[in-house]
Design brief:
Creatine Amidinohydrolase, Chain A, domain 1; 5-stranded antiparallel β-sheet; elongated; alpha+beta; Creatine Amidinohydrolase
Length: 401
Amino acid sequence: MTMEKYTRGVPEGELINRLNKLQAVLEKRDLDAAVIVNKPDFFYFTGTVQQGWLYVPREGVPLLMIYKEYNRARAESSLERVVSLSSIRNAPRVLEEHGYSRPRHIGMELDVLPANIYFQFKKLFNNPGIMDISNDVRMIRAVKSGYEIKMIRRASWLADKVAAKVPEFLEPGKTEITLAGEIEAYARSMGHQGIVRMRLWGSEVFYGHLLSGASGAIPSYLSSPTGGSGTSPAIGLGAGHKKIEKNEPVLLDYVFALDGYLSDHSRIFSIGPLPDELLKAHDAMLELQALAKREGVPGALSGDLYEIMFAAANERGYADNFMGVGDRRARFTGHGLGLELDEFPFVAKGQALPLEEGMVIAMEPKVILPGKGVVGVENTVVVTESGLETLTTIREDVVVV
């Protein structure tokens, strides 16, 4: 069976522009080539996730070497040179046959590259110098093109549709995991890809967090203000077996993943009204979000934006419960996203990365109240000349069912 060209693939012009930026990094750092293997980066530069290597010389045409599945990669990627690779050990010979000189200095994504693959490359290419280009790649990916923002807008529109569906499923006595399954099935029916990729080693999430009442304040190993009990200690986060009760906050913090691109947002629901204490805290987080949207202009430092939001939380009396409780609470209020859930920039303590037009951030000011739950908001926003434009636009107040 032959495959036709994939019609929803990454446009050729996008790939060329991205590869030009990578080759500029290689020129600046005096590297002979880059070898890209990490799946999100691989997709970003090739338009496919089929198993293989992307060899990018400092000058000239990149070579996409595919071990499995070649026919799919050929159909999905618009790169000029795509070849079949029968064995990883043959890579140096394949490069030589296509006119590439053996590299002396190679750039690779050392933040995510397994050690055994690192040593394999050292052996294959006669002990070349291997330099870390992970930050360079992440910075290229941090500023989204018009095409990428369009993709994230589509995912955001569907994320809003998922949130709008929650009241139809929400009822007392239903367990978190049951409600999560109903909502996830609805998201899947609209094209949610299921897989949500993260870069930080050991981090993983399935759709996101659906938490009710006190379980919303249970911390976990994940770098997040919320955790949840999960279904067992083997998972340790997310929806669990707790039954949803009246007059408690129900957090929907879900990612919509569509054609590779992510949108992340949180909304609060309740069966019957919430106590005034929780409503007041929720309104305070909406005020912090409005402040961040004004201050998040190009040139603003990501760490300064965090400090502005933390100071505003402190002024409103929430410093001890802002983004978690205790010494291990989250020290960020937003994270970049695109193909992964934890991209640059991080709106976090100590960060000094200037915001640029086209950066996309999930901004998430939240208050965690042990024994009571979580309130607050999260939206996917894009940095524009005048501040942060919100892409997830469904109502942000507490939705009472």
